[in-house]
């Protein structure tokens, strides 16, 4: 069935706008009416990072009239490899401040505002209310599921994407889609978030910068189709992109009946608390590794991360190898305290849980991981 346009057309275009958007006006699928819809649209972009950067730039260039940028992070030098809305002068600034300045400079037709806030279950609905659609370029599962729930409650479409190393998924969710269209949401694709730390973030796994540019641009294409009622959005389909093989595959996605329960379900009883793992500070560990009877320090990062430096004397077993193997056979001792190390802490905590399940008892996690080691012990090592 034809896809309905999300937004009613705004006022007639000015002479300057006729010139600025001429290449859109020449497209039969957009034309003057579609451009007026874009100028009347209100779009929220969650995340001004790898995906949000190209999405924001192309939303602004397309003439989306009102854009809200939502992010709670600041620009880091490691972001510049892919987050093209920021530049070297932006390092240390909030991503919202940097992105808003860039969008305002790109197109004065755009009324752009920033929300320097981390979206949670408690505030997502308030932050996203009043928008015609939402683009989610966030980098953590807590935010993704909070955004999905809020969009389901508000009845607005959600353009969603995720990138892992050199591959990506992109789709459109809309649990309130008009009759005859697939009313799908994130929970139809992934019913529950993964265990914390079990899926490496790009800071742990790496990511191809050009790929997030490609996918962020595709998110904007989805937004333009939704606003103008043109083409065939990815509603009911997930596009899988493999940049190394230069392939794209469309995967059908059907409603699973989760959404009434997911959005309005009563609070479930809290699961029993897992045993807490003791942490050790970087400075305390530095003293321990120099002392008699030092602990067994086990680095569970990926092999490529080892080039950034290690705690002196530590052994290396990647988390996946540890979880799939026999710790005894891998050489993890039972008669010494084992200190688990990763970049920031989550993977080391998962490694501790794995060892505990095998009967290991003397376990500690380096608090803050190698980033804390760099900050507190050895600043000659690079942060990454």
TrEMBL record:
GO cellular component annotations of the record: cytosol
SMART domains the UniProt entry points to: RHOD
Record-linked Pfam families: Rhodanese (PF00581), ThiF (PF00899)
Gene3D superfamilies per UniProt: NAD(P)-binding Rossmann-like Domain (3.40.50.720), Rhodanese-like domain (3.40.250.10)
InterPro entries registered for this protein in UniProt: Rhodanese-like_dom, Rhodanese-like_dom_sf, ThiF/MoeB/HesA, ThiF_NAD_FAD-bd, Ubiquitin-activating_enz
Residues of the Rhodanese domain: 291-382
An MF annotation (GO) of this entry: sulfotransferase activity
Transmembrane segments: none
The family this protein is said to belong to: Belongs to the HesA/MoeB/ThiF family.
Entry protein name: Rhodanese domain-containing protein
Origin species: Janibacter melonis
